[in-house]
Design brief:
The structure holds two protein chains of two kinds.
Chain A (H helix, E strand, L loop, with lengths): L18 H13 L3 H23 L2 H17 L10 H23 L1 H4 L22 H9 L4 H12 L4 H8 L3 H23 L7 H4 L18
Helix pairs in contact in A: 1-2, 2-3, 2-4, 3-4, 4-8, 7-9, 8-9
Chain B lengths: L2 H4 L6 H11 L6 H13 L1 H22 L11 H5 L13 H41 L11 H6 L12 E3 L9 E3 L12 H16 L2 E6 L2 E6 L2
Antiparallel strand pairs in B: 1-2, 3-4
Bound molecules: zinc ion (ZN).
């Protein structure tokens, strides 16, 4: 028998001590083939994960599908997980990467043809609020967020909408914390310029924030200096 | 417009604007915030930006606090699109679906595996017996270094180590034990030998270097240490 697994280890209720220690034990059990242990991890993280991914895709069913895919990949890559790290950021890193990949592919394919009735749809002219429907504040924020280039939008979503710390975001996006802080400043500046312009408050301040946003959040600023 | 004031203070506007964006969300240290405060006090341009940032940050906070699992647009676009499709309760776990997908992917992997293992087992049995005869069934060996020579020799037909078993490497927690056929008669070079070697190489590619071990209980494949 080459079997090394199947020790009856941990159930979701077995909370003894710090959550990350508990995570580590569950991961360890899951790696040795204990599927129930992995199930406990799924149940522990799924709501937060779905919530975060929903911020990126604005489609509830899609965010659940992406979360499923995230857990499946996490399970397949458990042997690559470094047990000295925390499980949460590692999981969210997989999920956010997967979601960003998905969004890029969708964008390349042309979201207008395939997703023309997607909730993420933007009005043709983002500077003008569509008077036909009453858009609530969250949607309004989403519309403006969609205009912010991806690398800034991601940080803004994780920090200001989901409340991760900049060091957690650094782990999720696999960047230095200094880079994340720089992007965060840039993201908030760009968001405020677009937001206030759209609200008609007219206090568009940073000239940077207006560049690179004139054509629907293209990532044409990729080469912009100031990072790393 | 900011250039005038920028020269009046130690902190320039570019730096101040960047720090304001951090300050508005509480991401600035206290000492940096004090210095920033001094700049903003004398810089109208940065004061305007601060107001703008405060307004947009308030909007973000409101969006953050809004219930996210039942988005407001659900009633419009999504609901319209999925009018006939019952959607699962927001809080139903996705674990059953994930679990089913894990099982499916493991099954498809095991089908691939079982597809060729029986054929290999037959060949492996031959080789095993051969090695048992040649090496007294004791030591562990990578095997097959020069199979042609030994393969040519007539080998007794009795299984030397009881019903041999082959264990696949433990991957993703799946263990499979396959029992060999009792004994495979052969008295001349077996064409399956090449096939077996090919499969051993496949196994190497898929699971890393393997070795064939002879034990009292049978023959096992194990990951080489
Ligand atoms: Zn200034």
């Amino acid at each position: 028998m080459a079997s090394t697994s199947q020790q009856p280890l941990t159930t979701a209720e077995d909370y003894s001590g710090d959550a990350s220690v508990h995570d580590a034990r569950l991961v360890d059990a899951a790696r040795r083939g204990d599927k129930d242990a992995f199930g406990s991890l799924v149940r522990r993280y799924e709501r937060r994960l779905i919530r975060v991914l929903l911020r990126f895709v604005s489609d509830y069913e899609l965010s659940r599908d992406l979360a499923q895919e995230t857990f499946l990949r996490a399970y397949e890559r458990l042997d690559q997980f470094d047990p000295s790290r925390r499980f949460g950021p590692w999981l969210f890193q997989i999920g956010v990467n997967l979601t960003l990949d998905y969004l890029r592919r969708r964008k390349r394919r042309g979201r207008w043809s395939l997703f023309s009735d997607s909730p993420a749809e933007r009005p043709p002219d983002p500077e003008v609020v569509d008077p036909r429907q009453q858009i609530d504040l969250s949607q309004e924020v989403q519309v403006v967020l969609d205009r912010v280039p991806e690398k800034y939008r991601s940080v803004l979503i994780l920090r200001d909408l989901e409340g991760f710390t900049t060091s957690e975001i650094a782990a999720i996006l696999n960047r230095k914390e200094a880079t994340i802080r720089w992007r965060l400043a840039e993201a908030r500046t760009r968001f405020q310029a677009l937001w206030n312009k759209r609200q008609g408050n007219g206090s568009a301040a940073s000239p940077d924030a207006e560049n690179g946003n004139s054509d629907g959040g293209s990532d044409s600023d990729e080469l912009q200096a100031g990072e790393e | 417009m900011a250039t005038l004031t920028a020269d009046l203070t130690p902190m320039n506007c570019r730096q101040a604007k960047s720090e304001l964006a951090l300050w508005v969300g509480g991401d600035l240290t206290e000492s940096s915030a004090l210095e920033l405060e001094r700049h903003v006090a004398v810089c109208p341009s940065c004061r305007t930006l601060r107001e703008g940032l405060s307004a947009s940050h308030t909007a973000l906070q409101a969006a953050a606090a809004a219930p996210v699992l039942r988005p407001a647009h659900e009633e419009s676009t999504t609901a319209r699109r999925e009018a006939n499709r019952p959607r699962p309760a927001s809080d139903s776990s996705i674990w059953p679906a994930v679990s089913a997908r894990i099982t499916r992917s493991e099954q498809s992997r095991s089908q691939r595996f079982n597809g060729w293992v029986p054929a290999m087992a037959v060949s492996a049995a031959c080789v095993a017996i051969l090695f048992v005869a040649a090496q007294n069934a004791t030591q562990s060996t990578r095997g097959f270094r020069s199979p042609d020579d030994s393969w040519q020799q007539p080998i007794p037909l009795t299984p030397a180590v009881g019903p041999p078993r082959i264990s696949s490497p433990n991957t993703n927690g799946i263990d499979r034990d396959i029992t060999f056929p009792q004994a495979v008669p052969f008295d001349r070079p077996d064409p399956r030998q090449r096939e077996f070697q090919n499969r051993l190489r496949e196994l190497d590619r898929e699971f890393g270097p393997m070795e064939l071990r002879f034990r009292d209980s049978g023959v096992t494949f194990e990951r080489r240490r």
